[in-house]
Sequence to fold (152 residues):
Amino acid sequence: MLGGAGNVASEDDLRAEYDAISLPQRGTAFSAGYDLRTPYDFVLKPGDETVIPTGLKIRMPGEFWLGIYIRSSLGFKYSVRLLNSTAVIDADYADADNEGHIKVGIYNGGSKELSLHKGDAFAQGILQKYYLTDDDAPVKQRRTGGFGSTNS
Fold:
């Protein structure tokens, strides 16, 4: 839900917000992670959680996945963490029913209020390659959904 917590935005407002989203970038020459930025201002009180729509989608080769991690500064200073510890975005997630829209759930497990402004980096995505075992069985199931959609 772009438009901020509890706000319903018009189609034009949503388009303007999506158009204003900057693509993730690395902060330094040796940064592994690409910074994900908030699309709007919000406050996360201790014990609260929220899901942040990034407006992003990624296409990558089949042997890659995108790991999303909380920025270390938010973890250390505020005890903020991802709702699912590490977000694993598979290569076929881009074709999910939600059009591959990456959303990041965070939780404030600390004692201080966290205030983030539109454009603040809050998480980082790291592209990683994975390998299959020699005796891996072929899988024919195709992704149709997002969160938890491949649970048998």
About this structure: Strands lie at 34-37, 42-44, 49-56, 64-70, 80-82, 87-90, 102-108, 114-116, 121-129. DSSP finds two helices and nine strands in the chain.
